[in-house]
């Protein structure tokens, strides 16, 4: 009869970030094992708190399903003699398989007829199987960091203190790291510090609930959200529930109780971002805002315990927060005493990248590139003045106390301090915006000055890092270059910047050289490949066709928005089976297959050496197609560009039908190959047809 299985791994308090991943590993590993063991089961669930990782498999079969299988023995020719009697080979095989020789059966195979032993393997009892798997399951969990304790050579995230393993009401006997399984769990560390007896797997959640341990993660999250909102309403505001903070708090407590606290109104002179980050990063508090979204002098914390003596808890937390905010106000007041231009001088002592200069050098390069971009984009005089002014002090806040304490506030504090120092709002906003986007889904820069500074900053970071020999490797990217590249691509794509990516990187490279850095190695080629790969990955993750992405992204001399628009255009044609697309693809591939034999030939085809009308017609069609294609591209008309190839397509097939290219006469042969190479180049102006797969 089926019964639920419960496994609880009791540990010293785990870091909150360890819990979700460990629970998911438990669920996946157990599900896979149950399938491999032929054990029928219901839903596999996981529960967890800082002190326990729990697995619960419902309706787990009492034993494995019996297995019937066959084992191949000798060939029939070897198993039976001419007289039809079993040979010694057959008898030995039957004996080794534990079956009677007369029970062997004959089966045909592609290699001939063989004899088989039909066998039946009775399934083992589930508790026996679980007993053998529990140590493997527990110790097979991986964590960002592990530790050893006592004298045992066992590693786990934290010391294992108890194990509960129950199949229904039956204890599954096993041992892990010297701890034997049983039915004794533990309640809340302070509210119910004694042992808790789990009579059966089904009673687990309710029994621990009575011991002030809320093991259901989803329920605990709902309770916290509800309590936090109500606590904020009690002090006349609305809680700002950050999802990342909420997830952490959920895995910090076993029995949540929210409470509201207050701080001195004078601290509201400090920028709200500072107060909110102080609450989140240092204290795990939820900020509270009024109906207009303005911060009020209150917060909501979540206690790991009940509501007894909550006023003492509130007072203690208010005292700690008061000290934190006093530090923040001190930093804020001290930072405002230093002019941004003076703070910039401190950047001369901060290395940007080893081998790529200081942060001061970087700011100078970014300003140079941003001004060049402003010129090419035709920005107005006021925007250029903003780029110049913001570029002079772009990263001065790196030298402030506040950004040293909270690096996440880089740019945010730059904006506040710039306004305090008398800089115009456009300059202050550009200083903030040049960091955007920081991550996928983040806001893009909203002003022309902020946009060119953001593009220049990201391009310089990529160029300088690759120049200095810094590359992302595998999953390692400590300098965030993948994120930086994606941010640059997002700006170019979504803001439709009409400058090619390659041209932007050229400007950043020129700024490096102008600063005295000598070119060397393959860093630029490596960078181009890195950024293109990042773009390709991004588009494939969106579901774009890989062949069209590869066929179009090779054009680094066109704006990114244009290239991606082209991918979409050709995808739509391919989806609808557009005849012109298939016609051009067929003609282009036919040309490319032979044109590659002339890739090493120098010079242009000589019309005076043409022997046939089809050669002349193809040459003229190629010339006209190139002109029409370039005009269509200049007008941004992709359909017209594809239509321009129609006349060329119609000239290709007669050429191949009536003209022999690889003739013995070397001069004629090479002239025809040069013609095909030029025709292939015209097709490539549209896209690289060699990459396209159309069926």
From TrEMBL:
It is found in: Cytoplasm. Residues 587-684 form the DALR anticodon binding domain. GO terms for biological process: arginyl-tRNA aminoacylation; glycyl-tRNA aminoacylation. Keywords: Aminoacyl-tRNA synthetase, ATP-binding, Cytoplasm, Ligase, Nucleotide-binding, Protein biosynthesis. InterPro entries: DALR_anticod-bd (IPR008909), Gly-tRNA-synth_bsu (IPR015944), Gly-tRNA-synth_heterodimer (IPR006194). One of its GO terms (molecular function) is arginine-tRNA ligase activity. Pfam families: DALR_1, tRNA_synt_2f. GO terms for cellular component: cytosol. It catalyses: tRNA(Gly) + glycine + ATP = glycyl-tRNA(Gly) + AMP + diphosphate. Its EC number is 6.1.1.14. Its main location: cytoplasm. The keyword Nucleotide-binding applies. It comes from the Bacteria. The keyword Ion transport does not apply. Belongs to the class-II aminoacyl-tRNA synthetase family. Tetramer of two alpha and two beta subunits. This is Glycine--tRNA ligase beta subunit. It comes from Kyrpidia spormannii. The lineage of its organism: Bacteria, Bacillati, Bacillota, Bacilli, Bacillales.
């Amino acid at each position: 009869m089926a019964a639920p299985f419960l496994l609880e791994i009791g540990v010293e308090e785990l870091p909150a970030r360890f819990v979700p991943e460990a629970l998911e590993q438990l669920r996946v590993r157990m599900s896979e094992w149950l399938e491999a063991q032929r054990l029928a089961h219901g839903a596999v669930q996981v529960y967890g708190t800082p002190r326990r990782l729990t697995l619960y498999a419902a309706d787990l079969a009492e034993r494995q399903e019996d297995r019937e299988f066959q084992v191949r023995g000798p060939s029939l020719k070897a198993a039976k003699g001419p007289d039809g009697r079993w040979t010694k080979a057959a008898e030995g095989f039957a004996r080794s398989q534990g079956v009677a020789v007369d029970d062997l059966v004959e089966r045909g195979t592609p290699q001939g007829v063989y004899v088989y032993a039909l066998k039946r393997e009775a399934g083992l009892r589930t508790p026996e199987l679980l007993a053998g798997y529990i140590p493997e399951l527990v110790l097979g969990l991986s964590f960002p960091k592990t530790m050893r304790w006592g004298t045992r050579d066992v590693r786990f995230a934290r010391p294992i203190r108890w194990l509960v393993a129950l199949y229904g009401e039956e204890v599954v006997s096993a041992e892990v790291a010297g701890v034997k399984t049983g039915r004794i769990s533990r309640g809340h560390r302070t509210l119910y510090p004694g042992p808790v007896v789990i009579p059966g797997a089904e009673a687990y959640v309710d029994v621990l609930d009575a011991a002030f341990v809320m093991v259901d993660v989803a329920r605990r999250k709902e309770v916290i959200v509800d309590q936090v909102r109500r606590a904020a309403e009690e002090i006349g505001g609305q809680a700002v529930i950050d999802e990342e903070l909420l997830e952490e708090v959920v895995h910090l407590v076993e029995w949540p109780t929210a409470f509201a606290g207050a701080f001195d109104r004078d601290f509201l002179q400090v920028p709200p971002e500072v107060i909110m980050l102080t609450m989140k990063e240092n204290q795990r508090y939820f900020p509270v805002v009024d109906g207009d979204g303005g911060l009020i002098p209150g917060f909501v914390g979540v206690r790991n315990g009940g509501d007894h003596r909550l006023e003492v808890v509130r007072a203690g937390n208010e005292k700690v927060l008061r000290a934190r905010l006093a530090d923040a106000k001190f930093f804020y007041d001290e930072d405002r005493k230093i002019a941004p231009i003076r703070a910039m001088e401190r950047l001369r002592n901060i290395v940007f990248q080893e081998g790529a200069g200081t942060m001061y050098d970087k700011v100078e390069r970014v300003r140079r590139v941003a001004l060049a971009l402003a010129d090419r984009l035709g920005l107005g005089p006021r925007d250029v003045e903003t780029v110049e002014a913001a570029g002079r002090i772009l990263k001065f806040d790196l030298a402030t106390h506040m950004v040293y304490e909270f690096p996440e506030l880089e740019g945010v504090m730059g904006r506040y301090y710039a306004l305090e120092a008398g800089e115009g709002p456009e300059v202050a906003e550009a200083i903030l915006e040049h960091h955007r986007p920081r991550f996928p889904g983040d806001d893009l820069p909203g002003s022309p000055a902020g946009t060119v500074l953001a593009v220049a900053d990201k391009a310089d970071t990529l160029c300088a890092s690759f120049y200095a020999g810094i590359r992302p490797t595998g999953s390692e990217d400590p300098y965030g270059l993948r994120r930086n590249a994606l941010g640059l691509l997002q700006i170019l794509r979504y803001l439709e910047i009409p400058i090619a990516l390659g041209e932007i990187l050229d400007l950043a490279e020129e700024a490096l050289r102008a600063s005295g850095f000598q070119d060397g190695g393959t860093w630029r080629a490596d960078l181009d490949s890195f950024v293109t790969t990042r773009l390709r990955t991004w588009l494939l993750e969106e579901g774009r066709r890989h062949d069209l992405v590869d066929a179009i992204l090779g054009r680094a001399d066109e704006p990114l928005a244009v290239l991606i628009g082209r991918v979409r255009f050709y995808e739509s044609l391919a989806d609808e089976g557009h005849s012109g697309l298939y016609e051009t693809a067929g003609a282009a591939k036919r040309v490319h297959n032979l044109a590659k034999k002339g890739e090493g030939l120098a010079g242009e085809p000589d019309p005076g050496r043409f022997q046939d009308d089809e050669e002349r017609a193809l040459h003229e069609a190629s010339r006209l197609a190139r002109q029409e294609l370039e005009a269509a591209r200049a007008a941004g008309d992709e359909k017209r560009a594809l239509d321009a190839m129609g006349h060329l397509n119609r000239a290709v097939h007669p050429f191949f039908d009536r003209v022999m290219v690889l003739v013995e006469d070397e001069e004629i042969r090479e002239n025809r190959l040069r013609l095909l190479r030029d025709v292939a180049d015209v097709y490539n102006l549209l896209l690289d047809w060699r990459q396209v797969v159309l069926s």
